[in-house]
Amino acid sequence: MTQRPLFLSLLCIASLVYNGLVMLLLIAAFFFRNYLAEMIRNYADAKAPETSLYVFLFTGLLLTGLAFYGVLKIWQLRKIGFLLFFLSNVLIMIVLYLFFTLSLWHLISSILLLFLFWIYAKRMK
To answer: How far is Cα of residue 62 from the mean position of the Cα atoms in its chain?
Structure first.
């Protein structure tokens, strides 16, 4: 069995924690959707109407779950994990752009994270 590099292990742990928390928040948002709709109306620069909140929550949960699964596969040193993680994060950025204004912080952090995982994907045989 191939040894997983320490930095890749740290990236995987951070990504698992982040995606797990986002999934929990999206599940909680289903139960507090009226409060969430009011927050979006008051504070967010939303492009989509409130009726598409279910679509956003379901799509976000699906894509975040796919990213979580991809990181699990990366943890097992499976190359398919890199592809799943990359595709899900690109789709998450597209969904965020369609529903909300994509923040510069989220864009830069996502690109940096994808780049760091890509470095390890290239090194795998």
So the answer is: 10
